[in-house]
Specification:
By secondary structure, this protein is an alpha+beta fold. It is about 35% helix and about 15% strand.
Length: about 550
């Protein structure tokens, strides 16, 4: 055992190892990068995380850098959960629901708690986490907050960070802070603290004051920015550091506890599947459907439903016949009032009545079970192998406005057709988030080269149509585009904040900031499996 692991082993309540097979496992997440960590720690509690970060800080003061990377189950495909560092794996011990307050409608969670499992518990209390990513079965709440990930109901309930009330965060020094909105008076008081926390508040105050006009004038989509500096200070002078840490991917500190809002669980949902055979009708009707504000409005182009049909030919054929629609649209209404749901369904049918649109409605328990399969198409395809190929990341989450959708989808069809690549795509019509995954066998050199070309051309297509790339976390994949997303001035502001919180650059370095695209290419793996999400027990 190396000196780093040996030293920490005697100080932690949890475990740490630098065994080669463990390091090999944690060298990958669900993405394209392979970066072997120095050691892997399984903290038993917050105190363990403090000891690790403090140790890293002390070494940095002496001129030796041992970085820290926090990680859930490794479902991130941006490369944000790998690094030449001590990987802090929270899913082994720090994976619990710590507190449930039904009256306030909130829970306190360990960062390694899996969203799917937490919801299983909450549902028994008539509650649930409204944020629900496609990968909720293997996504941790810590990872979702770290990337500010969007879910299938984000149009109604927001991204993962929307419901976060407060965080406990271990800073790069090992100090712990609890975020949450504080008054101007309290903020001024904390600026006087003779601690690293006080230093942070003083530095942050200066940065925000010097750049107030630039921050206020930003017209972009702030929820997709590398750091959310826009919601830190309110007009009344109150301050909340929570937005800074949400979406920061562990580059400012390690989240050790999350207090997040929950909402009442409604088991009686209206699920509707629409099949559009005419592209013109699709683009004419979708804005009208969006006005109804459903909890889900997801678009699946024909290419995606064709792939699903290959896995479920009898099921999908039974619903749509031999000819698949050009677009399949998933619609959900989750109002508690049955009358409201019926009214919404009636409006959908009326909107579609004058068009050649197939309307499928779950009106029995069996039908609800059947239609739920349609709502799992993206999750099913993400975990499926087709012709020895798997869904390869690299294009990840992007944003395009609804008015650019036609041009983007047309460009995508041409792009993937020319390169002979099958792909899956789904688009949240209300949030503008689009996710695209090509099916490739990355064991083959030709396929890796093809992916590189596709990534470049796809990103050009998005940017040329008023879109944004790398909007979920960014990681190592899309961080090079962050400056373009927010502009030179605001990117500089965010970099100053990174340097303020992490002066030695030991908190998940190489992620979000200071990313060299050319250097990244040397760290990509030849093989890839989206199933690399299981926990790896400590030795």
């Amino acid at each position: 055992m190396g000196k780093v692991a040996e030293y920490l082993r005697s100080h932690l309540d949890g475990e740490i190892t630098d065994a080669s097979d463990v390091r090999e496992h944690f060298s990958q997440d669900a993405g394209l990068f392979k970066i072997t960590p120095e050691a892997v720690a399984y903290p038993f509690n917050e105190q363990d995380i403090r000891k690790i970060t403090r140790f890293s800080w002390q070494l940095a003061e002496k001129g030796r850098k041992v970085a820290v990377t926090s990680r859930g189950l490794g479902s991130d495909w941006t490369g944000g959960a790998v690094g030449e560092s001590i990987v802090i794996a929270t899913t082994t011990h720090m994976n619990k629901l710590l507190e449930l307050d039904s009256r306030k409608g909130q829970v306190v969670l360990d960062p390694g708690a899996t969203i799917g499992k937490i919801n299983q518990t909450l549902i028994t209390h008539g509650l649930f986490l409204p944020f629900e990513p496609i990968s909720s079965e293997f996504s941790t709440i810590g990872g979702a907050v770290a990337t500010n990930a969007s879910g299938i109901r984000s149009a109604k309930y927001g991204t993962a960070g929307s419901g976060v009330n407060s965080l406990r965060v271990v800073l790069s020094t090992g100090e712990v802070i609890t975020t949450g909105r504080i008054t101007k008076r309290e903020f001024n008081k904390r600026m006087g603290l003779a601690t690293f926390e006080g230093e942070l508040y003083r530095g942050l105050d200066a940065i925000l004051n010097e750049n107030a006009d630039a921050i206020a004038s930003f017209q972009g989509k702030k929820e997709f920015a590398p750091l959310n500096i826009f919601d830190v200070r309110s007009k009344d002078g109150s301050v909340d550091l929570t937005p800074l840490f949400v979406g920061s991917q562990g580059t400012l500190g390690v989240v050790s506890q999350i207090r997040v809002a929950v909402t009442a669980y409604n088991p009686n949902l209206t699920h509707i599947v629409l099949g559009f055979y005419s592209e013109d009708e699709f683009f004419a009707i979708m804005p009208e459907l969006a006005k109804l504000k459903p909890s889900i409005l997801t678009v699946l182009p024909k290419q995606t439903s064709q792939l699903y049909a290959g896995l479920n030919p009898l099921f999908i054929g039974k619903k749509f016949g031999d000819k698949l629609p050009e677009y399949v649209v998933l619609v959900e209404f989750d109002e508690f009032a049955t009358r409201s749901q019926k009214r919404s369904l009636k409006k959908v049918k009326k909107i579609c009545s004058k068009s050649d649109v197939v309307v499928l409605v779950a009106d029995t328990e069996r039908h609800r079970e059947e239609l739920s399969k349609f709502f799992r198409i993206p999750a099913t395809l993400l975990q499926s192998e087709i012709e020895q190929s798997r869904t390869a990341p690299g294009l990840e989450s992007s944003y395009i406005p609804a008015e650019s959708l036609k041009e983007v989808l047309s460009g995508m069809r041409e792009l993937f057709s020319k390169n002979g690549v099958k792909h899956m795509t789904w688009y949240d019509y209300q949030t503008g988030v689009i996710r695209t995954f090509p099916y490739l066998d990355l064991r083959q050199l030709g396929h890796r080269q093809k992916l590189s070309r596709l990534v470049e051309l796809y990103r050009d297509l998005i940017l040329q149509n008023s879109g944004l790339v790398g909007i979920q976390g960014g990681g190592r994949v899309s961080a090079a585009f962050h400056k373009e997303m927010v502009g030179d001035v605001l990117y500089g502001v965010m970099l100053k904040i990174k340097q303020l919180f992490d002066p030695y650059n030991v908190m998940n370095p190489g992620v979000k900031f200071g990313v060299d695209p050319k250097a990244i290419s040397t760290k990509t793996i030849q093989g890839y499996s989206h199933g690399n999400k299981h926990n790896y027990l400590p030795k």
